[in-house]
């Protein structure tokens, strides 16, 4: 498991930053896309890093839907969304994020 950092960008500045864990870089990219999507009413773009290494996100990469993520990745995405919403960053005010969190009991994977 590795730690990745997502930076959320507004028009001219960073409006959020958060660390999350993923099994590998391709999984981290899909998780970052899910996190960006849920905050897309506030964010214009995002960057993904693993330590000092920038993780390239291909523009033509098909985003996985939340349901297509593994149960473990879904749970980490939900936990990260909750942490982002509790942060001091501007991205925490995303209406779309807060609406998603209201329905997270529906989205949360079934216990194994």
Q: Number of helix segments? A: 4
Q: Helix coverage percent of residues?
A: 25-40%
Characterize the largest beta sheet: strand count, sense, and whether it forms a barrel. Answer: 4 strands, antiparallel
Write down the overall geometry. globular
Strand order of the largest sheet: 2-1-3-4
Poorly predicted regions are: 105-112
H-E order: EEHEEHHH
**DSSP strand tally:** 4
Mean pLDDT: 87
Q: Could you tell me the strand content as a percent range? A: 15-25%
Output the structural class: alpha+beta
Give the terminus-to-terminus CA distance: 20 Å
- Gyration radius, in Å: 13 Å
Description:
This protein has 112 residues and is an alpha+beta fold. Helix content is 37%, strand content 23%. The chain contains four helices and four strands. The protein has helices at residues 25-38, 71-85, 95-102, 104-107; strands at residues 2-9, 14-22, 45-50, 53-55. Strands 2-1-3-4 form a four-stranded antiparallel beta sheet. Helix 1 crosses helix 2 (71-85). The longest helix has 15 residues, at 71-85. It starts with a strand and ends in a 5-residue tail after the last helix. The relative contact order is 0.21. The model is unreliable at 105-112 (pLDDT under 50).
């Amino acid at each position: 498991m590795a730690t990745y950092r997502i930076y959320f960008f507004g028009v001219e500045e960073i409006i959020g930053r958060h660390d999350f864990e993923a099994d590998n870089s391709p999984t981290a990219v899909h998780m970052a896309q899910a996190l960006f999507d849920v905050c897309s009413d506030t964010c214009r773009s995002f960057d993904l890093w693993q330590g000092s290494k920038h993780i390239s996100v291909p523009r033509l990469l098909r985003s996985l839907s939340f349901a297509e993520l593994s149960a473990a990745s879904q749970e980490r995405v939900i936990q990260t969304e909750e942490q982002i919403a509790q942060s001091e960053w501007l991205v925490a005010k995303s209406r779309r994020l807060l609406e998603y969190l209201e329905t997270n009991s529906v989205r949360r994977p079934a216990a194994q």
